[in-house]
Task: inverse folding
């Protein structure tokens, strides 16, 4: 992302249409997301954006930059670092923070494991371990609104979550007792200890996100695009070799051309074989894909049919 | 599957619709069928649903797939075979991208219907063709009518169980038309469908040769959106969300920074109408008039903007404008008032009694209010207003409210976004009701301004 929308770029990013007939899907989704981001900044004391360097959080940050132009993004970023993140994604995260002059808080799962507040799971995945550091960081930062890049098309439980989603002081989501969300009037009222999770791109699909990245020329970590990597096959996915994701003896390694559709914890995120090395090629590939992005690449969501629902109830993203 | 089928459009109009009806009517099956037949279900989702269907011994004409499993998201829903809450689905065809609000009909149908219908360009009301128009159908249509959803589609389902009989369909269709005429619903489309077998969902069915209208999906692909319909009808309104005033802390290149030193713009999503640079506008509360000198969007200067674009507007005069103010086409903004007569869709289990102190949110303005009186409750079968002294959950009634500070309210019948508001519990923050303005103001308005 450029981090700045100079007046000189006006022609290249003007997508406004001369009448109500003809705003594109992306224009409408963008407009909705910016409205949500502005509402939350206007009504909350200390919003923060969960920023992993993944494409969805990068898109939310881009929307925030557009929402407040020519001013700066009026909130900071929070990253829950599992300790198993891809190094190139962390480098991208830090470069983005630096370029845009933002504040970044990092909550480290490793710290919690080191001092015994959390224990490593037998299966080695650290995604479920993020909840406690996340909630502690929200409490310590007194954040009353927490932006995230979750989308409703990702998962059946997320399909039922509100754009502004109330969490109690334990961070829990109560799916059976959600506030009705009416017109474009968002209700962010909450009591002491409660906070809201805010998902401005709830209504975007994976393809919308990629088309938007293409249209806006948004920069992403390089592993979203096809590259050669030493990988091995596990659970029907190509897994990268790293300290935390080593192949077993019966899992031969090979060099493949792959890319990542989602960027999470290295211990549970798989790559897909792909020669899509540019954003245009990725858009084409996503258009034709017959698998959902989570089904293709996330071992953690295969644990049970309600894996995401259970984690969300406990305060997960 | 060919690429042509899966190819989705880069530019298309986003169309939002809601489905209403109960599980027994086959609504989940209809939604699942729509997603499946429009090739919007990806292989891993289909595998998962097929596996679960087989485990539960589901058979039948759909090839062993329980389509309802595609849409029931929560553990309790799958276990109990019910749908708890509004779920959102996304699919696209060559013509359009769709956002579907899937509203369950059983429990709290008003709450779910209202939630889905407030943002819908169309509502698809499902009827079991064997049962015809039920009380619930009338209630769904009443909500659709009161919320002014532009398009109503009645899907007469289970036409396969009626042996694809034209006579049987005509009987149901006539009964539906009687209700929609009575409610004075404008554009109503009635389609014979079989959600289970796919007739007239995506493709027109050869088994209903007597039906010459479009399939459900064809209809959804061609109906105009609310904003398209109303762009030229409603006057320009921008509820101000916040003032963008970076005071030097700007993201533009250093050589341009000077030009933005005194930058001040009013950010918001255009609620209705069109605004152009050079337009004369009125700011409310108050009645200051000024001229639009710029419409900015992230570095782009626009000559004009339309609902529902999110923009930032610069004005010729330095006015005291804060969040909650409304910028509107000159002379079109009604005077701010503290007295409102409204219809309330009561959504909270705690009943409403007159005298209740609440918060209301109109556009971007949140103000305290007192419900001064409940003047009646709608009989949802006849829509007649009956005497009432309070409202219970799922009731739709009329009430008068007094606001703590004046707001330029407008009848919902004239301007959808400017006439809609939330009623919120002041302590817990719960959303208590969806409100629509019937009328605002009284002769004593000037006393408050």
Result:
């Amino acid at each position: 992302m450029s981090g700045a929308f100079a007046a000189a770029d006006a022609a290249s990013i003007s997508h406004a249409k001369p009448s109500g007939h003809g705003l594109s899907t992306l224009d409408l989704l963008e407009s909705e997301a910016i409205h949500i981001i502005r509402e939350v900044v206007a009504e909350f004391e200390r919003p923060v954006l969960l920023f992993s360097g993944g494409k969805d959080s990068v898109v939310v940050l881009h929307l925030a930059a557009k929402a407040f132009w020519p001013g700066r993004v009026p909130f900071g970023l929070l990253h829950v670092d599992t300790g198993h993140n891809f190094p190139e994604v962390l480098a991208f995260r830090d470069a983005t923070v630096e370029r845009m002059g933002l504040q970044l808080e990092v909550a480290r799962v490793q710290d919690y494991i080191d001092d015994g507040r959390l224990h490593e799971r037998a299966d080695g995945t650290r995604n479920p371990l993020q909840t406690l550091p996340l909630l502690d960081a929200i409490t310590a930062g007194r954040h009353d609104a927490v932006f995230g890049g979750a989308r409703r098309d990702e998962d059946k439980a997320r399909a039922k979550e509100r754009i502004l989603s109330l969490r109690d002081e334990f961070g829990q989501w109560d799916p059976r007792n959600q506030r009705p969300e009416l017109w474009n009037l968002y209700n962010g009222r909450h009591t002491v200890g409660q906070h809201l999770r805010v998902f401005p791109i709830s209504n975007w699909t994976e393809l919308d996100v990629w088309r938007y990245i293409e249209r806006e020329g948004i920069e992403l970590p390089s592993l979203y695009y096809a590259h050669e990597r030493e990988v091995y096959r596990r659970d029907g996915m190509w897994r990268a070799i790293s300290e935390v994701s080593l192949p077993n003896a019966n899992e031969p390694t090979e060099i493949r051309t792959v890319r990542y559709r989602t960027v999470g914890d290295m211990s549970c995120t798989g790559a897909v074989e792909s020669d899509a090395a540019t954003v245009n090629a990725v858009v084409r590939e996503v258009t034709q894909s017959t698998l959902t992005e989570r089904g293709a690449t996330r071992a953690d969501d295969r644990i049970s049919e309600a894996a995401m629902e259970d984690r969300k109830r406990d305060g997960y993203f | 599957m060919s690429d042509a089928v899966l190819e989705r459009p880069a530019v298309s109009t986003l169309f939002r619709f809601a489905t209403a009806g109960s599980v027994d009517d086959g609504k989940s099956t209809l939604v699942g069928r729509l997603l499946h037949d429009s090739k919007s279900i990806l292989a891993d989702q289909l595998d998962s649903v097929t596996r679960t269907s087989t485990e539960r011994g589901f058979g039948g004409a759909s090839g062993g797939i329980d389509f309802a499993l595609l849409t029931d998201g929560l553990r309790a829903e799958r276990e109990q075979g019910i749908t708890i809450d509004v779920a959102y689905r996304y699919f696209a065809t060559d013509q359009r991208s769709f956002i579907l609000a899937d509203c369950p009909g059983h429990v709290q149908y008003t709450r779910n219907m209202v939630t889905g219908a407030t943002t819908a360009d169309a509502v698809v009301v499902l009827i079991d063709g064997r049962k015809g128009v039920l009380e619930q159908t009338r209630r769904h249509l009443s909500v659709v009518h009161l919320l002014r959803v532009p398009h109503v589609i009645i899907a007469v389902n289970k036409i396969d169980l009626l042996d694809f009989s034209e006579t049987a369909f005509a009987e149901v269709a006539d009964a539906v038309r009687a209700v929609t005429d009575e409610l004075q619903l404008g554009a109503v489309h009635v389609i014979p469908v079989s959600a289970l077998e796919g007739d007239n969902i995506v493709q027109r069915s050869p088994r209903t040769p007597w039906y010459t209208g479009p399939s459900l999906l064809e209809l959804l692909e061609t109906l105009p959106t609310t904003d398209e319909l109303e762009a030229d009808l409603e006057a320009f309104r921008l509820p101000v969300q916040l003032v963008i005033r970076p005071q030097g802390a700007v993201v533009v290149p250093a050589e341009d920074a000077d030009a933005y030193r005194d930058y001040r713009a009013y950010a918001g999503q255009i609620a209705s109408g069109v605004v152009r640079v050079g337009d004369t506008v009125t700011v409310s509360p108050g009645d200051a008039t000024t001229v639009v000198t710029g419409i900015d969007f992230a570095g782009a200067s626009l000559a004009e903007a339309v609902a529902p674009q999110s923009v930032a507007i610069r004005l010729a005069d330095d006015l005291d404008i804060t969040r909650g103010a409304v910028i509107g086409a000159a002379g079109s903004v009604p005077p701010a008032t503290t007295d409102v007569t409204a219809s309330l869709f009561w959504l909270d289990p705690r009943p409403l009694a007159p005298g209740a102190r609440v918060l209301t949110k109109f556009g971007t303005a949140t103000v305290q209010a007192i419900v001064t009186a409940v003047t009646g409750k709608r009989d949802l079968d006849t829509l007649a207003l009956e005497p009432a002294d309070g409202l219970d959950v799922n009731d739709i009634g009329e009430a008068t409210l007094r606001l703590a500070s004046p707001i330029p309210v407008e009848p919902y019948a004239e301007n959808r976004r400017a006439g809609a508001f939330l009623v919120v519990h002041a302590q817990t923050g719960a959303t208590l009701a969806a409100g629509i303005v019937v009328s605002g103001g009284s002769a004593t308005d000037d006393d408050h301004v």
Q: What stands out?
A: Residues 80 and 107 of chain A are 5 Å apart (CA to CA). Residues 221-302 of chain A form one domain.
